[in-house]
Amino acid sequence: MRMTGLGVSPGIGIGKALVLKRGTRDLRFRVPPWLVDRELDRLEAARLRSRDQVEQIKQRIASSAGAEHAYLFDAQLLMLDDPMIVGRAAEAVRAERINAESALQRVLEHVNALFDQAHDPYLRERKGDVADVVGRLTMNLRAAGDLTDLFKDLEGPLVLVAHEVTPSVIAQLDWQRLAALVTDAGSWTNHTAILARSLHVPAVAGLHNASAMVAPGAVLAVDGTTGEVLIEPDAEALEQIAARQQRRQAYEQSLDEYRDLAAVTEDGIEIRLEANIEAPEDAMRARERGAEGIGLFRSEFLLTGAGPGAFARLTEEAQYRSYRQLVEMADARRVTVRTFDLTEAQLRIDASESPLRLDPASGEGVRTPLGMRGVRLSLASEEVFQAQLRALLRAAVHGPLRIMFPFVSGLEELQAARAAVAKAAASLRARGEAVPDVPIGIMIELPSAALTADLLAREADFFSIGTNDLIQYCLAVDRTDDRLSRLYEPLHPAILRAIRLVVRAGRRARIPVAVCGEMAADPVLLTLLVGLGVRELSMTPAAIPLAKRVIRALRASDARVAASRALNARTATEIEKGLAELAEPTVKKA
Length: 590
Ligand code: PEP
Ligand code: MG
What we know:
Blueprint: E1 2-4, E2 6-9, E3 12-21, E4 26-28, H1 36-65, H2 67-81, H3 83-96, H4 100-117, H5 121-143, H6 147-151, E5 158-162, H7 167-172, E6 178-183, H8 191-198, E7 203-205, H9 210-213, E8 219-223, E9 228-231, H10 235-254, E10 272-277, H11 282-288, E11 293-298, H12 301-304, H13 316-330, E12 334-338, H14 374-380, H15 382-395, E13 401-405, H16 411-430, E14 440-444, H17 447-451, H18 453-457, E15 462-465, H19 467-475, H20 493-509, E16 513-515, H21 525-531, E17 536-539, H22 544-552, H23 556-568, H24 572-589
Parallel strand pairs: 3-5, 5-6, 6-7, 10-11, 10-17, 11-12, 12-13, 13-14, 14-15, 15-16, 16-17
Antiparallel strand pairs: 1-9, 2-7, 3-4, 3-8, 8-9
The structure holds phosphoenolpyruvate and magnesium ion.
Phosphoenolpyruvate (PEP) binds at residues 296, 298, 341, 445, 466-469, 516-517.
């Protein structure tokens, strides 16, 4: 069987399905024979723990509201002892070798179906009780261990099939074990896709119901370039896939010769190509791919992408070590670190805890595109912000580092953020530490920032246009929602006008303007960006060799003409046509 979605991280991965439904609460996979007893023990431990909890609740209710109200919990205690639930789940674990969570869900689905057939309304209401009991059992299974602990003993490469990969899942995954990632939701620019690309894990998003269709343990072949997912492919299909992979590898290798060449257009315009990375170690790979520096280090991935134990990284000292490593790995090339671009749901600040904690679990399923995030959240979380800024200023002693603020909506935020840097510098000086001069720039990713770029340019040392968010906010299209992907249009005239406005403002104020959104990595769109006057592009390291090839075959003067034609066009379709004409001879020449 075959499913097709959006290829969001190129490459081919083959492995056994690990199915994750609804956040981290419902993980389904098949276990090898020697782990069956472990699953049965987990199930029994969860049952005993659930019993204790329900007993305690029952006693509490009895003493506060009277024994007549506590009887409700007797039903739950009976269910916990009833072979229809835990007993049946244990049977499923034994017979089908599935994990305990999976078996419980199976039982719940079965019991629900039985209740749905019942005509008695009393019986139908009991459905809620069963769901409650199964929910408690599942919670207690989870309480006993981390996700990674659960599947670390599974055999072979795995393909994670999830409804949605939330920050809490990202934080708990052992990405090394993943041959590929497949999601019901998601899109090219959401952070899971960005991370998958940076970790070279092939991924397909927007499959709608993969997590319902794919059986745990099924073999999947995932093509993250075409968006194709084959379930239980036969030998012939596997052969075809292997051949496809070889062809692609040969093509990648053919681009190797461009890695060390300069990104200069045919008519001599130099374009600075830098890399977007999510982990300090990636700086090395960026260099190997021919990046001139790091144009975007997404610092929040120190927390969400680092697996269990990420909490401690919020301390000044731990961050300093990471930024210093980053700067040293970049080997004297410029590094631009973006301060945390987290949402409030991801960053729960609990002043009583030391170190301050990131609570990835609370980020589950929460999208706050218009809420507290980016620099707003940093400004409201002074302790976290100051620790990050001190760490960055200290790391800047070791190499050319720039600080960049995300999600700036206007001048006052930039001024407040600059004041925060001054404060961090003063406190370091008071500690007797040297503080170098560090350029301070901002992401332009909100329409309000693009429209006031002239004002911002007077007080920022550089701009970097984040087209991923700029498109989302200009067009009111949630970038993570695959159902809207057709409306997510980089070539909308509003986007081109916004970019032109920012480039002009930067030029007038004589500050550099880069583009670090995914548009920069697209071989056709980047020619338009060059035509619009952008001279710095930052992209995922793997895209750099092809970008160099395209730029070296391009005449900037042609790109300028195409860009001015695009600016006069009325629709994205017209713009696209014009660009195709420009790209064709460029690609042929290359
Ligand atoms: C952007 O918004 O274009 C960007 C580069 O930042 P992120 O993708 O991390 O939001
Ligand atoms: Mg952004």
